[in-house]
Amino acid sequence: MSRLVVVSNRVAPITEGEPAAGGLAVGVLDALRADGGVWFGWSGQVSNDAETLPNPGRDVGRITLRTIDLSRRDYDEFYRGFANGTLWPVLHYQMGLARFDWGEFAGYRRVNALFACSLHAVLRPDDLIWAHDYHLLGLAEALREAGVGNRMGLFLHTPFPEPGVLMTVPAHAEVVRAMAAYDVIGFQTEPDRSAFTDYIVRQAGGEALGGNRLRAFGRIFATGVYPIGVHVDEVRAEAELPANRRQALRLRTNLHGRSLILSVDRLDYAKGLRQRFVAFERFLADTPAAHGQVIFMQIAPPSRSDIQTYREIRHELEAEAGRINGRFADVDWVPLRYLNRSFPRAALMPLYAEARVGLVTPLRDGMNLVAKEYVAAQDPEDPGVLVLSQFAGAARELTAALIVNPYDEAGIAGALDQALAMSIEERRGRHAAMLDVLRANSLDAWRDRFIADLRAAGG
Ligand code: GDG
Which residues are catalytic? Predict the structure, then answer.
C-alpha cells in the first residue's frame, strides 16, 4: 500500500506514548501510526541560513518527521503576510481586517515552492500526499511544476468564502488556479464546497462534471465534504480521569454552587470574543436574578501575537473584561474570568465537564472542535447545554444545540437565560442527539473517508 505523506505548515511536536493536542494532530497521527508515513512541515524555527533541503529526519515509532526552517523574509511574507494577514481574515469573512501586498503573495508562492522542492527530495513515486490548510494552497501546483505526478489532496480546515468575498483578494484567480492542481480538495461543510464550486463555474469558466468532480484550468479534480470530528469516548474518559481533575475540582469548590458558562478559544478575532463579552454584559443587564449566581470563564490562549490585528484584539478584550467586571462585580462576586493562557489538554476536558453552558460563538469557523469536545466531555446523566454560533461549521451537525447569531447580543443573552433554566430532560435529549452525530462523524471517519477518496483519485 502506498505510503502516506502528510504536509502541514507546522509539524506537531510529538513524543512516543504522549497524546497530541488539537484535531489535525490527533487525526493524522492516528493514520500515520497505523501504517507508518512521513509528516512534513515547517520546524517553527526562523533561521538566517535556511536551506532548501529538509533537516535530518526524526523517527517517532513508524512516523518520520521531516522539517524545514524558514528565513526571516519567508516568515514575514508567507506566514505573517499572505497566509495570516490576507487569507485568514478573508476566509473568515473579515475583509476589513485583511491587508494585501503583491510582494507578500510572491513570498507565499515562494515558500510553497520551497516546501515542494524540499519535499520532492524525500518523496517516493507512489506516496499519497495529504496537505493541510490555507498555508499550502499552492503546494500541489509547485510539485507538479517540479514534475511530481503523485496523488495529492488538500483538506481546508477553514471556511471557503462566497466568490464575492474571495475576490476582494486581488490574487484570487492565481490562488484558485493553484488549488486546482490537487486531485482531491476537501472541505468541512457543504456550503464551503458549494462556494468553491460556484467560483470554479462562474468565475473560472470551469464545469461541474457530476460525481463531485470539476473540470477547470485543463485538469479534472474531485471535491468532498469531510467534517472533522473528535474521539468521543476518549474525550469523556479524559474528562473523568481523577488525575486530570485537579483544576476542575479547585474550580468547583470555588464556584460555591454558582453556574459556570465556559468558552475556550485561541485568542483570534474570528472567534467572536469581543461580541461575546458584550453579549454577556447584556445578559447581566437583562437578568438581575443571575447576579451572584453565574460566572463566565473565558480561556483564551494567546495566538499569532506578532501580528498587529491579534495584539489589538488582546488589548480590546482586556479593556472589555475590566469594564464589564467594573460595572457588575460585587464584594463577593466577579462575573467574568478572563484567562489569557493555555491549559494542558488533559486539564481542559474536565473543565468542559464542569460547565453548565458551553458558549461557542465564532463569527466564522471552519468547524470548531471546542463545540464538539464540550459535548463529548459532558456527563450524559447531567449534561450541560451548548450555545453555538450559526456560522461555525459544527452548527451544520450539532443542530440540537441552542443556535445563535454571534452578532446578536440580545439573542445570545436570551440563549444563556434559556440554557441556564433548561430542564434535565431537555438537556439529556439534546445531548443524546448531538452525541449520536459526533459518533457518526468521528475523527476516524474524517480521516478514513478523505484517504479513501485520495487513494481512488486519478494520480
Ligand atoms: C482550525 C479551524 C477547525 C484550545 N485551548 C487550548 C487547547 N485548545 C484546543 C481545543 C481544540 C483546539 O485547540 C482548537 O480547535 P478549534 O477547532 O476550536 O479551532 P482552531 O484552532 O481555529 O482550528 C477550526 C480546526 O482547525 C480543525 O479542522 O475546527 O474551524 O479554525 O482541540 O481543545 N488545547 C490545549 N490548551 C489550551 O489552552 N492543550
Answer: 157, 365
